[in-house]
TrEMBL record, chain B:
PANTHER family: FERREDOXIN. One of its GO terms (molecular function) is metal ion binding. Keywords: Electron transport, Iron, Iron-sulfur, Metal-binding, Transport. This is Ferredoxin. InterPro entries: Fe-S_cluster_ET (IPR051269).
């Protein structure tokens, strides 16, 4: 349709398989407002600047009362999680969660998970050994991070059937509310969040009565200089960890596999050079980031950058996927260079909201892709481009069919 | 092997401490301590840590008998640093 803004086009499902030409067009006007009042920021320099600018809030409550996302938060039965708050509240919550996840309080936990994770992905592949075709999404990239985050938190993995639909609705509701369709997604996300919140509340109750050796139990019983997490904070934090822990990782595994299948020489190189996986995962985070843009920021004041004034209360979208291919920052940005140097990509964000789960996600995806490289015999892409999921923000294939001659033991 | 962290650049994200806890440690909230001459056995872990640093502050240098191979993860000095 003529007259659609670039930002609307990025969100339009028709462009899901390849939004990158739109991002290139967008970078010509690095701060771009449209008729919906949305502002998209797309150059590497301005995105990093704004990710460190306290005038940009992650708290949707900073938006005007008629904003659909603001209304959804107001009606939610659970409080906003730390990903949706600002300092000092954000920092306090993040500190309390980090105590049970990483240094200085919990040292070595993620690194020590490697063996179990390797066992798990190899088990998945063992069970597919007589197959000639696999769906990377349903058979591999989805079940793996779900299992990991469930076991880490202390959620029974078999409950996936119960929370799958909720998780998806919540993930889709991260997209900007554009038009009637957008508002419907927000409304569905609200219902799902309330239901998942109910589920978590019950689970927290069980863990409170009978603490186990899992993160949820430790968060319930822990206390520190910051005090204890309240029931509300426990519910919203665990909902966020569950969603963030798998709805993104599935896309990085799948985007990585797709990119390798499109670059068979790199796939072949990885087979002989497993250490290549370390920079290769970083390059995938740059080249096909699972979070394409931050969709939850709001201007707390009038912000003038590069001669454009973003008015107070306006939604601001930081276009990670556009910044990651900014030719001012990266040489040959549209080329996938598995051992790229100086790869300071924005795939996990930057600043105070830098991805909490990044160390875990890195370990998971390095292991998952290396196992595919080692074990799949003559893998071939069946459909290119593959069908994509609905979400513009959490972009990734819905299915990724791969033909193989077999799977090595 | 030798490890160097540009502590002006380092912003205490602690990503390195997750992936190579033997070599990188946080003291208190965000002061980083690290081993500048780690054992070669830790090579892979240290490479993982260096790649994961969000501000690319970690440099790894290998000395092997023949030629000195310098693997650089950090950005060049000309590269602008963005503020905290
Ligand atoms: C490849 C997988 C992943 C990607 C690409 C990713 C990406 C991101 C990005 C871009 C942000 C910044 C959001 C913002 O600035 O508003 C973020 C934040 C966050 N991520 Fe991840 N993430 C991934 C995996 C995970 C995992 C496995 C977990 C949980 C264990 C997780 C938990 C979080 C949390 C809790 C935040 C909020 C941090 C804060 O607000 O301080 N993520 N992630
Ligand atoms: S990951 Fe980088 S910024 Fe973070 S503590 Fe280590 S060296 Fe510093």
């Amino acid at each position: 349709m003529a007259g659609k803004s670039l930002f609307q086009q990025v969100n339009d499902y028709a462009h899901r398989a390849n939004p990158y030409p739109l991002y290139a067009e967008m970078r010509k006007t690095p701060v771009l407002g449209d008729e919906d009042g949305n502002y998209a920021v797309s150059s590497y320099r301005l995105i990093t600047e704004l990710l460190h600018d306290p005038r940009l809030s992650s708290d949707i409550r900073a938006r005007p009362p008629d904003d659909p996302k603001q209304q959804a938060v107001a009606q939610s039965s659970i409080s906003p999680a730390f990903i949706r708050t600002d300092p000092p509240e954000h920092d306090r919550l993040r500190r309390m969660l980090t105590r049970q996840f990483g240094p200085p309080h919990t040292v070595g936990m993620i690194d020590n998970m490697r063996g179990d994770l390797e066992k798990y992905v190899n088990g998945l592949l063992d069970r597919m050994q007589d197959r000639k075709q696999i769906d990377i999404v349903d058979d591999y990239a989805y079940p793996f991070p779900v299992d990991v985050i469930c076991k880490l938190l202390g959620i029974p993995p078999e409950d996936e059937k119960r929370f799958h639909g909720w998780a998806e609705d919540i993930a889709f509701s991260l997209d900007p509310a554009i038009g009637e369709e957008g508002r419907k997604l927000i409304a569905k996300g609200l219902v799902a969040r309330n239901e998942l919140g109910q589920y978590m509340r019950a689970l927290i109750d069980v863990h409170r009565k009978q603490p186990g050796n899992d993160m949820l139990s430790r968060l319930i019983t822990d206390s520190s200089a910051d005090g204890r997490l309240t029931e509300e904070e426990l519910v919203s934090s665990s909902v966020t960890l569950l969603i963030a822990g798998h709805e993104t990782t599935v896309n990085l595994i799948t985007n990585g596999t797709l990119t390798l299948l499109r670059n068979p020489d790199v796939f072949e190189r990885l087979r002989h050079e497993p250490d290549l996986i370390i920079p290769l995962v970083e390059e995938t985070l740059r080249f096909e980031p699972p979070v394409q843009f931050n969709s939850q920021r709001t201007a707390l004041a009038d912000i003038t950058i590069d001669g454009v004034t973003i008015p107070k209360g306006a939604p601001v979208y930081l276009m990670i996927a556009a910044g990651n291919r900014d030719p001012v920052r990266f040489n040959e940005p549209d080329r996938f260079i598995p051992d790229r140097e100086d790869n300071q990509h924005l795939g996990f964000g930057s600043g105070i909201h830098y991805c909490f789960g990044a160390p875990l996600a890195r370990v998971e995806v390095q292991i998952a892709l290396n196992a595919l490289a080692r074990r799949l015999i003559n893998p071939r892409l069946v459909v290119d481009p593959p069908p994509y999921r609905q979400s513009a923000v959490l972009r990734g294939p819905r299915h990724l069919l791969v033909d193989v001659d077999g799977i090595k033991p | 092997m030798r490890v160097l962290v540009d502590l002006n650049r380092c912003q205490g994200y602690a990503q390195c401490c997750f992936l190579a806890p033997e070599s990188f440690k946080l003291v208190g909230e965000e002061a980083l301590m690290y081993d500048s001459g780690p054992d070669d056995a830790l090579k892979e872990k240290i490479e993982r840590a260096a790649a994961s640093c969000p501000v690319q502050a970690i440099m790894v240098e290998y000395m092997n008998g023949h030629a000195d191979e310098m693997v650089k993860s950090g950005t060049s000095e000309a590269e602008a640093r963005h503020g905290a």
